[in-house]
Specification:
The structure holds two protein chains of two kinds.
Chain A lengths: L1 H7 L9 E7 L29 H10 L2 H15 L6 H34 L2 E6 L2 E6 L8 E5 L7 E7 L5 E6 H4 L1 E8 L12 E7 L10 E5 L7 E5 L4 E2 L4 E3 L3 E8 L5 H4 L10 H32 L14 H5 L2 H16 L5 H20 L13 E2 L13 E4 L1 H5 E12 L2 E4 L26 H13 L4 E2 L4 H4 L3 H9 L16 E2 L3 H12 L3 E6 L2 E5 L5 E13 L4 E8 L4 E7 L1 H4 L8 H13 L2 E11 L1 H16 L4 H12 L4 E12 L3 H10 L3 E5 L4 H10 L8 E5 L1 H4 L6 H18 L16 E6 H8 L4 H16 L3 E5 L3 H12 L7 E5 L5 H6 L2 E5 L6 H5 L2 E3 L4 H38 L13 H11 L1 H10 L5 H6 L15 H25 L14 H23 L5 H23 L13 H6 L2 H28 L3 H16 L10
Parallel strand pairs in A: 15-27, 15-31, 27-30, 28-29, 29-30, 31-32, 32-33
Antiparallel strand pairs in A: 1-8, 2-3, 2-4, 4-13, 5-11, 5-13, 6-7, 6-12, 8-9, 9-10, 14-33, 16-17, 16-26, 18-19, 20-21, 21-22, 22-23, 23-24, 24-25, 25-26
Chain B lengths: L48 H28 L2 E5 L10 H5 L9 E9 L7 E8 L6 H4 L4 H4 L3 H5 L10 E2 L2 E2 L5 H4 L5 E7 L5 E3 L10 H7 L10 H4 L28 H7 L7 E8 L12 E9 L9 E7 L9 H38 L1
Antiparallel strand pairs in B: 1-10, 2-9, 3-8, 3-10, 4-5, 6-7, 6-9
Helix pairs in contact in B: 1-10
The chains are: A alpha+beta, B alpha+beta.
Protein name (chain B): Cell cycle control protein
Keywords (chain B): Cell membrane, Cytoplasmic vesicle, Disulfide bond, Glycoprotein, Golgi apparatus, Lipid transport, Membrane, Transmembrane, Transmembrane helix, Transport
Pfam family, one (chain B): CDC50
Chain lengths: ~1150, ~375
């Protein structure tokens, strides 16, 4: 509020888009007007509570949950109003829940406090007025110059000023930030004098923002009486808090963001909560039960006052009211009566359900991490569960959005071939030719031909230069031997002479595996990249000579341009630009006459599923270079719209190049990718491939994964098909959409769901990014929604959809569109790279693959698995089981509380609507906590109604639970009716027994507490045995817990009635249970009622069997079949 | 019967440790235990028509005889109910019910003649029954102080608040306090056998053994321990407002007096439903040869103390014999017969279905 007001009243100047930091002495001229800007200190506060505010704040947080708040209200009503049950009955469970949660959260917070303390009190060295002062980390201010030594983590976000390395670089790992453990190079700001004491500069940089990979700033360095120098600052100059300094003895940096404004802290915020469909169902059911509760209370209150209006009923002589009761206002009394009934019936909505559901989810998710099938021996890791809230959602997936590279494919690139000037060069391991060069027949000419050596070498040089690959640093143990070795390894021979031939497996580090594959490919052809040092790239050429190139500029890769370039200056003084990128982004920028020869190769390679890149070069004249150089420098210094400005310059420079050749890199399919996709499709899941790759490559991957079959008719909506006709694109789009819609949607025989029947035509849909954006952002408003609808309908009727050339944001857009479409299907995104993060976050369930492209996807995912093939078990087995378990848990919980409370409600009709509880307080309290909670928990953790192997074998079983099948209104009503039936049986069975309360052979009679206890005994046994009937998988734990809780109930009841309890004001149950069991009639009625209640249950199960064999039977049959063949199914039933 | 199979699982232990030198990595690799891999050995019963059928027949065959037995037993129990409320003019107790006042010192007595058509052979149990009397009303049920009744001297002088408005009378604590105790049934019922020769023989009624043993010996205790001087023990307390005598004058027998008076204990066990009966007296069988109550005419003499007209209640006297299953109640027998026959019937239907469709579905399964 206040802040907003402040802003409105002209606090605007504080909200500037950049911050200015003064380093060192302040420039004298601005001194008088200078007010040091206020930045937050470097204290990290990740803890939520302090000792003082823990209790109120934690309680507040907990009671913000609607359920807890409801129970609190009930409890307060019980305390304030004279209610039938003591406050203990609802207070105790609530207290238990609240305490356990508070202890858990308190412990977690204590851990955070400890971690915070460690970080905040860490001693760091700060350079102040030329002295080195040791300070606590939390005391660092923005503008301080901080010194960090090797293997230390940076205490705040620093701009690198000075490094102990000669070339002004330092290496860091960001393992704790994004999990990437490779070394990254950061650069010092150029032109900083050695003596930091003398440094006087201002840094202008953007306001803190969470993107780890973005930073723009400008540093103005004042030299003594000289004109100031401006240097641009980028992410390569910024050292992030949390990263660790490696391979560098020490660095100095100036703090720019501190404390809670560091990028790490800004990234600390938890992800937005994803809610599962089950939770929505629970809330809906809760509402129904709340209505039942309210109407019950209302009915009872009304009837009470109707009943009381008859003379002699309200206050007979034997039962007079206290004076206070008499004085109370009638309406107030009515209200308190209503509340009393609410309290009496409030057990219908149990606190314990939330506890049990939470416990089930948490413990259940452990089974995923424990699963040894998810363990990947390569990376030596198993599955990772980031949230346990979505376990059951895994059983509900209808759409899978998968990335291609690294997910469907291994992202393990191998250089396959290249073509230079239209001649094809295929590398063979066993090639006997010199240099491993082998020339095969190009399709262009039948004669073995070779491009000129000059072109070859140019091409290979381009491969060696045009990248951002680093040579791998030495491992830890080598470092102890001092700097000499260090330098040697990292430069591979500083003096330029290479003694030993490069090792077979030279370590390269790069952001993308394609680059490594290309560099390695060049090695095979005799050109070895030796490393980059002091902006000089060294190449070992075929003649074992070292060529040196000065690296002038790197025009970074980005997914929009889809190409990258370097500008280098050779020894001879030529300035060259090498560019490599996707064919579509290169071809328009080269001389057209060169294109055709190469396009053929590129297309052929793409069809075979290879990733192709084209390589082009251009000589830059001195003027051209000067112009480009100036443009780049200017753009890099821009604070606003730097990206756009840079892009413009890049596009300007990368024109008029000449094409040298193309490369083909193979990306192998993941293990069992095809099988996984096939079984997912069998499970009725629609698979969409969203990739940034080009259409032909993606299409061939889809064929390889059997997403498209040979008989699949492909519907293409790409730039190519759009430009087919002579019409305008929009018109063509319209036409195509209508045509495909007619084909895929309208011509399908009604009533038949597409993917179910195998004999009809399968359709596959292909769309590319450009067409998609046309569909989504159509110029005509009216058409826009129509196109979107048509598009969705077509896609929903296709077995597989391929979206290629997608930008990361478009992936999320598609997921969002499907997510919000009719029927709101459950979506799952799976990916491994940073470009998949947006769709992983967008989908209902996000799955990260612990692949090669860093840990970004894993960090943002809900579940992480090592390989694609694990998805099958995760969904078909784990997801299916979790869904069945939790659905049963929820339904059972509602059911058991309905038949718990219904007799109590019916009893009101027999006790003058006086809110007399039927059961003793101990039973009311313990019913949900002790007597009936453990069996259902065990069930919901261990149940396998169909065993895992069968689930994996028969993907179709997954369809049985699709669309929240077990938690829709149908099953809910079935369960509710069952609960009502049971409640009626319990109550009226005992009611008719009690028409003569003399139930013993000594003529003595039973009272109301005996009545309640008999009902309760029948209740506990029935609900437990019902669960036993539903249990299909009896492990020893199930046996233990089910029979154990029944035994516990009996023992407890004996115990509770066996002693005069000093703390109880009324000994209601004194010897009631023992007396009850001494009556044969009671035994008989208990047996009768339990059997009668379970009869329909048994009948339902049986009647379902002969007419329609359920999935279970089906599975058994198939199992029988397979066991005959393979004899592997030991743990599944083999007899019917 | 139950189609099931115990599956001995292959507890294959740790077989797939990734190669040698995996020791350090083993901690990361999930343990290969049956529990963690969700492969605990399990019994997997399947309910099919074939398995449930015999159970249905079994239940049917088991329940129907029990039901018949129960029904016969219940029918053999002899029971006689006499309503002596006196709400209509013809009733002998009409006058007493009309002229009732709490303050009258002279008890009103009425005599009701009745006839037993059959002799009652075994012990006969005499109950009083009340209708439309809400002993299970919440205000009523909680209006008692169990620690006072358990002989706690502190609670004796300071009854619990729950007893309000029957806790104190003229500043003196009421013993026993509360609405339940205050409204204790105080009609006196006596039975006379009208000998054919014209004399009236009073039938001896036993007033012990009517309350639960645990109630009499554990839950209810007189204050002051074994002090036989009840007047001193109850010094300073008031009798319940509606009582004519203090609690220590309920019976002359010290073992059946005060809080452990069995009539009192029986009353204190609140009934479950508004129409209820409570054991009043037992007529012990004396002679093996003679019936306890021979056939003939009897007289019930009622000292009419208990008003029920104000709340439209009814009062009954019930004479009943008892079997192993308790008093007369045909419900259990009928219920057992019904459930048993339903099971049997279902069994038959299932059998037919099983025979007709079972084969077909089997063949369908095989072909699929």
């Amino acid at each position: 509020m206040l802040r907003r007001l402040n802003r409105l009243l002209g606090g605007d100047e504080r909200r500037v888009d950049s911050r200015t930091i003064y380093v060192g002495r302040q420039p004298g001229s601005t001194n008088e007007a200078f007010i040091p800007p206020k930045f937050c200190d470097n204290r990290i506060v990740s803890s939520k509570y302090t000792v003082w505010n823990f209790l109120p704040k934690n309680l507040f947080e907990q009671f913000r949950r609607i359920a807890n708040f409801y129970f609190l209200i009930i409890f307060l009503v019980q305390v304030i109003v004279d209610t039938p049950t003591s406050p203990v009955t609802s207070g105790l469970p609530l207290f238990f829940v609240i305490t356990v949660t508070a202890i858990k959260q308190g412990y977690e917070d204590w851990l955070r406090h400890k971690a915070d303390y460690e970080v905040n009190k860490y001693r760091v060295t700060v350079l102040e007025d030329g002295r080195r002062i040791s300070k606590e980390s939390e005391k660092i201010k923005v503008g301080d110059v901080v010194e960090v030594v090797e293997d230390e983590t940076f205490p705040c976000d620093l701009i690198l000023l000075q490094s102990s390395r000669d070339d002004g670089t330092c290496f860091v790992t960001t393992a704790s930030l994004d999990g990437e453990s490779n070394h990254k190079t950061h650069y010092t700001v150029p032109d900083i004098e050695k003596d930091l004491e003398m440094l006087c500069a201002t840094i202008e940089c953007e306001q803190p923002q969470p993107d780890l990979y973005k930073f723009v700033g400008r540093m103005q360095i004042y030299r003594n009486n000289q004109e100031s120098v401006v240097r641009s600052l980028g992410p390569e100059n910024l050292l992030l808090k949390g990263a660790t300094l490696k391979n560098t003895k020490k660095i100095c940096g100036v703090a720019v963001y501190t404390g809670m404004e560091t990028k790490m802290a800004l990234n600390y915020q938890g992800k937005s909560q994803k809610r599962s469909a089950v939770e929505k169902s629970i809330n809906a059911f809760l509402l129904v039960y709340l209505c039942i509760l309210l109407s019950k209370a209302l009915v009872c209150t009304t009837l009470k006052y109707v009943w009381q209006s008859k003379p002699g009923q309200d206050e007979p002589w034997y039962n007079e009211k206290t004076p206070r009761e008499k004085e109370t206002n009638l309406y107030l009394k009515m209200f308190t009566d209503f509340l009393s009934f609410m309290v009496l019936f409030n057990f219908i909505i149990p606190v314990s359900m939330y506890v049990t559901v939470e416990m089930q989810k948490f413990l259940g998710s452990l089974f995923i991490t424990w699963d040894k099938d998810f363990f990947d021996p390569e990376i030596k890791e198993g599955a990772l569960v980031n949230t346990s809230d979505l376990n059951e959602e895994l059983g509900q997936v209808e759409y899978v959005f998968t990335d291609k590279t690294g997910t469907l494919t291994q992202n393990n690139m191998e250089f396959i071939e290249c073509c230079i000037d239209g001649f094809q060069y295929t590398y063979r391991d066993t090639a006997s030719e010199l240099d491993g060069f082998c020339v095969t027949d190009g399709p262009v000419s039948k004669l073995p031909q070779k491009a000129s050596t000059e072109r070859e070498e140019l091409f290979l040089r381009a491969l060696c230069l045009c990248h951002t690959v680093q040579v791998k640093e030495p491992t830890e143990q080598d470092q102890g031997q001092g700097g000499g070795l260090l330098d040697q390894v990292d430069g591979l021979g500083v003096d330029g002479e290479v003694l030993q031939p490069p090792q077979e497996e030279k370590g390269f580090i790069a952001s993308s595996p394609d680059e490594i594959a290309l560099v390695k490919g060049a090695v095979r052809y005799g050109f070895t990249f030796l490393g980059l040092e002091n902006k000089v790239m060294k190449i070992l050429n075929r003649n074992k000579d070292v060529e040196m190139y000065e690296l002038l500029h790197v025009l970074n890769f980005d997914p929009v341009r889809r190409r990258m370039s370097v500008i280098v200056r050779s020894r001879s003084g030529d300035t060259l630009l090498f560019c490599k990128g996707a064919d579509a982004s290169i071809f328009p920028r080269v001389r057209q006459e060169e294109v055709e020869r190469i396009r053929m190769h590129v297309d052929r390679n793409a069809k075979e599923g290879y990733r192709t890149l084209c390589v082009a070069y251009k000589y830059l004249s001195a003027e051209e270079y000067a112009q480009a150089d100036a443009g780049l420098r200017e753009a890099r210094l821009a604070l606003q719209d730097r990206e756009e400005k840079l892009m413009a310059v890049y596009n300007q420079v990368e024109t008029g190049m000449s094409l040298i050749g193309a490369t083909a890199v193979e990306d192998r399919l993941q293990e069992e990718a095809a099988e996984t996709m096939e079984s997912l499709q069998g499970a009725g899941i629609k698979i969409w491939v969203l990739t940034g790759d080009k259409m032909e490559t993606a299409k061939s991957t889809c064929y390889a994964c059997r997403l498209f079959q040979r008989n699949t008719e492909l519907l293409e909506l790409t730039v190519r098909t759009l430009e087919d006709g002579r019409m305008r694109r929009e018109a063509r789009l319209h036409e195509l959409l209508i045509e495909y819609h007619k084909k895929a949607v309208q011509d399908v025989p009604p009533g038949v769901t597409r993917s179910w029947c195998s004999d009809s035509q399968d359709y596959g849909f292909i769309i590319d990014g450009a067409s998609l954006s046309m569909v989504l952002n159509c110029s005509h408003e009216s058409n826009s929604s129509l196109y979107k609808n048509l598009f969705l309908q077509i896609c929903q009727n296709c077995t597989a959809v391929l979206c290629c050339r997608m930008a990361p944001l478009q992936k999320a857009q598609i997921v969002k569109m499907v997510k919000n479409s009719k029927g709101s299907p459950i979506t799952l995104s799976i990916g491994d790279g940073a470009n998949d993060v947006s769709m992983i976050l967008e989908a209902h369930v996000g799955i990260g693959i612990k692949g090669k492209e860093g840990r970004q996807a894993v960090r943002n995912s809900d579940y992480a698995i090592p390989k694609l093939k694990h998805l099958k078990k995760l969904l078909l087995a784990h997801g299916h089981l979790y869904y069945v378990r939790i659905a049963h848990l929820v339904q059972y919980f509602f059911y058991k509380n309905l038949c718990f409370i219904l007799p109590q409600f019916l009893y009101q009709f027999f006790c003058g609507y006086s809110q007399q509880p039927l059961y003793d307080a101990a039973y009311l309290t313990m019913y949900n906590i002790c007597f009936t909670s453990m069996p259902i928990l065990a069930y919901s953790l261990l149940e396998q109604h169909i065993c895992i192997d069968v689930l994996l074998e028969n993907a179709t079983l997954y369809r049985a639970i699709a669309k929240n099948a077990m938690l829709r209104w149908g099953p809910f009503i079935k369960w509710t009716l069952q609960g009502v039936f049971h409640g009626l049986v319990f109550f009226f069975g005992v009611r008719y027994l009690f028409s003569n309360p003399a139930l013993q052979n000594n003529g003595q009679v039973f009272g109301n507490w005996s009545y309640g206890t008999i009902v309760f005994t029948v209740l506990v046994f029935t609900v437990t045995l019902k669960l036993a009937l539903d249990t299909r998988h009896w492990t020893w734990l199930n046996h233990f817990v089910i029979w154990g809780s029944l035994a516990f109930y009996v023992v407890f009841s004996f115990f509770w009635g066996g002693i005069i309890w000093p703390f109880l004001s009324q000994q209601r149950l004194c010897s009631v249970f023992a007396k009850m069991l001494s009556s044969l009639s009671v035994w008989l009625v208990i047996i009768l009622l339990i059997l009668l209640s379970l009869l329909p249950e048994i009948l339902l199960v049986v009647f379902r069997n002969p007419f329609a064999p359920r999935p279970r039977q089906l599975s058994e049959d198939s199992l029988l079949h397979s066991s005959r063949q393979q004899q592997l199914s030991h743990h599944c039933p083999t007899s019917t | 019967m139950m189609a099931s199979s115990y599956n001995a699982k292959d507890e294959d232990g740790n077989i797939t440790v990734s190669g040698p030198g995996g020791g350090a990595l083993r901690s990361k690799k999930p343990e290969n235990t049956a529990f963690k891999q969700q492969r605990l050995p399990a019994w997997q019963p399947i309910l099919t028509a074939g398995t449930v059928l015999p159970a249905f027949f079994g239940i049917g065959l088991f329940f129907i005889p029990i039901g018949i037995g129960l029904y016969v037993t219940s029918n053999n129990i002899k029971e006689l109910e006499i309503d002596y409320t006196g709400s209509d003019m013809s009733s002998p107790c009409f006058n007493c019910s009309q002229s009732f006042s709490w303050n009258s010192t002279k008890p009103c007595t009425c005599t009701i003649p009745f006839h037993l058509d059959q002799p009652y052979d075994s012990n006969v149990f005499m109950y009083y029954g009340l209708s439309n009397f809400y002993q299970n009303h919440r205000r009523y049920v909680k209006s008692r102080d169990d620690s006072q009744l358990n002989g706690d001297s502190g609670s004796l002088m300071k009854p619990s608040k729950e007893c309000e408005p029957y806790a104190y009378f003229e500043k003196k604590p009421i013993a026993p306090c509360g609405a339940i105790a205050n409204s204790m049934f105080n009609d006196t019922l006596e039975l006379f056998y009208n000998n054919p020769n014209g004399t009236k023989v009073k039938i001896p009624l036993t007033s012990t053994g009517i309350a639960w043993w645990t109630d009499k010996h554990v839950k209810f205790r007189n204050p002051g321990g074994s002090n036989p001087n009840f007047t001193a023990v109850f010094q300073g307390t008031a009798k319940p407002v509606n009582w004519r005598r203090p609690v220590y004058e309920l019976d002359s027998d010290p073992e059946n007096n005060g809080f452990i008076n069995e009539d009192f204990i029986v009353w204190m066990r609140t009934a479950a439903l508004p129409t209820f009966r409570k054991l009043y007296r037992i007529i012990q069988k004396k002679d093996d040869l003679l019936p306890t109550l021979p056939r003939g005419s009897y007289t019930l003499e009622v000292v009419y103390n208990y008003p029920v007209r104000s709340f439209e209640g009814r009062k009954r006297m019930i004479l009943s014999t008892i079997s192993w299953m308790g008093g007369k109640n045909p419900f259990l027998g009928i219920a057992y017969i019904t459930v048993g026959s339903v099971c049997f019937f279902l069994g038959v239907i299932l059998l037919i279905i099983h025979h007709k469709y079972g084969n077909r579905s089997n063949s369908a399964d095989i072909s699929s």
